[in-house]
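Q: My labmate handed me this sequence with no annotations at all. I'd like to see what the chain might look like in three dimensions before we decide whether it's worth expressing. Could you predict it?
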Amino acid sequence: MSRNHKAQYPDELPLGELVEISEPTQPAGRKRYEGRYVNLRPVDPQKDVADLYRNSHGSQAKNRIWTYMAYGPFSDELAMQAWLSDCKASSDPLFLTVTSKELSQCVGVVSFLNILSQMRCLELGNIWYSPIVHHTKINTETIYLMLSAAFDRLKYRRVEWKCDALNARSRTAALRLGFSFEGIFRQHYIIKGRNRDTAWFAMLDRDWPAVKSNMNRWLYSDENNISLAELNQPLLNAIGSEPGPYSSSAS
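A: Here is what I predict for the chain of 251 residues:
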């Protein structure tokens, strides 16, 4: 049952808007998400490892997947299977395997994480895909399905996207997908022995209707080949999302 908290505060102090308090909900652990191009499902280590290892190891392009990740590359399939077993056992992050319907192969992994159900906020992260599906609609539809789960089904207020501030590909993807830039957390992590400054992006529930419409148009109905970045740019301009140039504080 919904309820409102009304505390007493001094009249002269500014306050945030009242938020309706609802029962906390979380992404379902065994939930599957199906789109036109992808299926997202819970990780199955034995079933998934052959595809995932083959599609993410064995070439320079594939090895680049792991540059900014906290894990990988893996020495062999068994090592990757052990990692996938840890993924399966985890509820936060809540990992999903991405399967290309066209290729009938597992082509990547994503997760919901930092799930703050009482605050109605979560993050999309641990996102990686094989180069065989780069420059396709796989990532866009995957994120579309995850955002729809967060905003439409769970009624969350905020979804975050964070990445290494030097990861230009991820930063570009965040803006293209409609996330607004919020700043840099300097010296946020140490990843594989190296400093990581973290770029923060977010999307709010009030942003989602416009982003959802743009994603639907780009994924399923646009015949004019307008880029998703162009479709979402007016929204980002209105928010004032200006990431600007960046160089590491450790350089």
